[in-house]
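Run folding on both entries below.
>entry_1
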Amino acid sequence: MIIMMNNKKARTSFPHCVMLVFLFCALLVGCASNKPQIKMLEETNFAALKTFYVQPPLNSFNPTLEQHMASTITTVLQGKGLTVASEDEADIRVGFFPSNRVEEGGSSVSIGLGTGVFGRSGGISLGSIFSVPVGEQVTEYQNLQIEVVQDGEFIYSAAGRAELESSDSITVQQALTELVETLLQPFPANRAN
């Protein structure tokens, strides 16, 4: 009878344990996501916007990549029905803030060496654990923030990052093109123009 009660307890707690493990894994996946953060001021009449001006970044680091980003932003916004204008005549100003980030980390293998004596009521274990790095330990990211301002008020803000497979200029340029397109994809199109 006691054995049957323990089995019933084990059967009812097993689904709970599985559910907890599933939730924990989902939480880890959500935290590790590189999903862009995009916000827009909902009360803005995006259909009334006809012209834009792309401002140079405040943090100049590579004129060639800056020109490429400005050109990509211009192409995406023109594809949404907006027209390029001078800074004074534009309905909105678009600013961007690129940056690099290097994160250290990576994989490691832990190897445990030792001896142990275990009994019914307790145990003793003597030994040590070694952690051996495996593979590359540095990951480089290209971060980008895009801000759209109308009459001194932010109406659209998007930030995201792209993991770089290598740090050559062509790879960085391709990653930035994809990142700009991703960050501006939700920007409302104005097909009436």
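>entry_2
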Amino acid sequence: MWRGELKPLDANLWFAQVRELARYCSTAPKESDAQAIRRAYHLVKVAPLALRRTALASTQIEEMELEGILESGRMLQAAQRTVAIVTKIVDAPCNSNKSQAIFVDDAERADRFVAASPALAVIGIWAEYISSLAA
């Protein structure tokens, strides 16, 4: 019935999980990169079908490829490939221990997300942006 795809989660439950991921990324330590990336990957795979065909259509990385990138320690690349959004990564203002991801959407609205690492910032900004689609 799902032709190799995982059965989608209920949209309300899925968006709640994405919002929780954004909260997690905002407070998680840098060592949590791989956990957040894997969580985002699995959320993409169980996303509601309408989102899979629109907002998430460009997220095409396979699990084996993702695991290879993670095992090589390239966390930022893994995050960017998992969520397939273009972000700019900069040091967070007034705090050299944090990274900031900046994402400009199609309406040219700039969003920022601060986290302990560039990878967490990318996953966090993606989660916040996707969550905004539920509103």
